[in-house]
Design brief:
With 205 residues, the protein is of the alpha/beta class. It has helices at residues 15-26, 43-56, 76-86, 108-122, 159-172, 180-184, and strands at 5-10, 31-38, 59-65, 92-97, 128-134, 136-137, 146-147, 153-156, 188-194. The chain has a single domain (5-198), classed as Rossmann fold, CATH 3.40.50.10320. The strands form two sheets. The chain has a seven-stranded mixed sheet with strand order 3-2-1-4-5-9-8, with helices on both faces. The chain has a two-stranded antiparallel sheet with strand order 6-7. Strand 4, helix 4 and strand 5 form a beta-alpha-beta unit. The longest helix is centred in the middle third of the chain and has 15 residues, at 108-122.
């Protein structure tokens, strides 16, 4: 399916590339707008995020929600308000964000962002014809995150697309080859797909 306007809402600079970079690169004709909710005041990471957007041929903006090492839980209203402040107020054909369980064990910011985006879609504050969440798991830290290919929309990336994605992680974001990020960089990307905001699978437990 072809989409014209796509919104991607993530917690951190590099999430857009790790979990959806190949999809973005493979659909350069779509109008991608990427909202990153953390690290705007981190000038180094912010600069890298905007450089990554250039390679991805995407527009985007950053917020500055707390992302300190203690990962103190955020108020959901604060997360939702920040999303609405940053995201253009227009309908989107496709909306993508983190999974309710995160992409690995475990990252509270990913879970909080997912919960907030889902609620905004369910209550009509964000209008989108289709909604997707990243679909990855790490076997409770037994291995690097990998795409879930059962009951998902998934894509095996070409070598060229994966290499471009990997280069963003290593050359733009600067993660060394032995880093978690570089070793994780999936060559298959997967998404859970929803068209009904009230789908019971979107209930956070």
């Amino acid at each position: 399916m072809e989409f014209k306007n796509v919104a991607l809402i993530i917690a951190h600079p590099d999430d857009e590339t790790l979990w959806a970079g190949g999809t973005i690169l493979s659909h350069s004709s779509w109008n991608w707008f990427i909202v990153c909710l953390c690290r705007r005041s981190d000038t180094e990471r912010a600069e890298k995020f905007y450089r990554a957007l250039q390679v991805l041929n995407a527009e985007g903006i950053m917020g500055d929600l707390d992302d300190g090492p203690n990962q103190i839980p955020l108020n959901q209203n604060e997360v939702e308000d920040t999303i609405l402040e940053l995201l253009p107020r227009k309908p989107f054909d496709l909306l993508i964000t983190h999974n309710l369980r995160g992409e690995y064990t475990r990252h509270i910011r990913h879970e909080e962002v997912s919960k907030a985006v889902i609620h905004l879609w369910q209550c009509g504050e964000i209008i989108a014809g289709e909604f997707r969440t990243f679909a990855y798991e790490d076997g409770n830290k037994r291995y690097y995150p990998k795409a879930i290919t059962q009951d998902t929309e998934y894509y095996h990336l070409t070598k060229d697309i994966w290499r471009k994605k990997y280069n963003i992680i290593t050359e733009i974001y600067g993660f060394i080859k032995d880093s978690w990020e570089a070793r994780t960089t999936p060559d298959t990307e997967a998404f859970l797909k929803f068209t009904d905001p009230q789908d019971r699978k979107l209930i956070f437990k």
